[in-house]
């Protein structure tokens, strides 16, 4: 029997995660039944659970994948860019709709409130985003671009709270087309202001 290449396994895993993201976003964790996951991924139950032990493991892998992508954006462009990406209208070339990411993020928030076991498992993963934000802010401070009258940990918490507020705003279906100036203000509030004259 021929061995399956690692590239094929990675592509199949990506296919499952992408389909599952859309399914969890549309139906929530409880509503994302195995049948719906099969439809969303185009794969059988056996194929899905060959890669992931169970639905919980699949959801956690998906949430970790999203957190890792966010941490990469934060490391390069900052947490405000993650927020801007949430507001951006996806174009035809976008592989992933921000609303799908938002659905996963909302489900993570709900499970953090209601599931102590999930909260314990997730705590370790959520540190990635916090660490990436803190490191980015420290680099900005070293470059002289970040205000120096507020501790980096306080600025990190501030930006994370703004992100959570934006996620809640979007989750409630409130209009988001006028929030770019708000994000400009958030970004400006952490910058170092040089006195003129």
Q: Any overview of this molecule?
A:
Keywords: DNA-binding. It comes from Saccharothrix hoggarensis. Pfam families: TetR_N. This is TetR/AcrR family transcriptional regulator. With 197 residues, the protein is an all-alpha fold. 75% of the residues lie in helices and 0% in strands. It has 9 helices and no strands. Helix 1 packs across helix 6. About 3% of the residues have low confidence.
Number of helices: 9
- Biggest pleated-sheet summary: none
Structural class: mainly alpha
What's the multimeric state?
A: single chain
Q: Work out the helicity level.
A: over 70%
Uncertain regions spanning at least 5 consecutive residues: 90-95
Tell me the span between the first and last alpha carbons.
Answer: 76 Å
Determine Rg (CA atoms, Å).
19 Å
The ordered H/E elements are HHHHHHHHH
Task: Please count the beta strands (DSSP E, at least 2 residues each).
Answer: 0
Backbone shape: elongated
Mean pLDDT: 85
Strand content: under 5%
InterPro entries: DNA-bd_HTH_TetR-type_CS, Homeodomain-like_sf, HTH-type_TetR-like_transc_reg, HTH_TetR, Tet_transcr_reg_TetR-rel_C_sf
Protein name: TetR/AcrR family transcriptional regulator
Domain HTH tetR-type: 10-70
DNA-binding region: 33-52
Question: Main attributes?
Answer:
single chain; 197 residues; mainly alpha; 9 helices; 0% strand; DNA-binding; Tet_transcr_reg_TetR-rel_C_sf; HTH-type_TetR-like_transc_reg; Homeodomain-like_sf
């Amino acid at each position: 029997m021929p061995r399956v290449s690692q590239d094929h396994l990675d592509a199949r895993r990506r296919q499952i995660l992408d389909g599952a993201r859309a399914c969890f976003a549309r139906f929530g964790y409880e509503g994302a039944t195995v049948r719906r996951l099969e439809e969303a991924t185009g794969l059988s139950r056996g194929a899905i659970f060959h890669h992931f032990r169970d639905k919980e493991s699949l959801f956690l892998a998906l949430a970790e994948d999203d957190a890792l992508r966010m941490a990469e954006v934060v490391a390069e462009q900052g947490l405000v860019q993650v927020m801007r990406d949430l507001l951006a209208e996806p174009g035809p070339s976008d592989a992933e709709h921000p609303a799908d990411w938002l659905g996963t993020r909302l489900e993570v928030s709900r499970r953090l409130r209601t599931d102590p076991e999930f909260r314990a498992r997730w705590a370790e993963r959520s540190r990635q985003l916090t660490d990436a934000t803190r490191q980015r802010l420290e680099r900005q401070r070293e470059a002289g671009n970040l205000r120096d009258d507020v501790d980096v940990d306080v600025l990190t918490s501030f930006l994370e709270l703004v992100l959570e507020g934006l996620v809640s705003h979007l989750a409630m279906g409130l209009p988001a087309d006028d929030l770019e100036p708000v994000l400009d203000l958030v970004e400006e509030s952490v910058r170092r202001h040089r006195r003129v004259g």
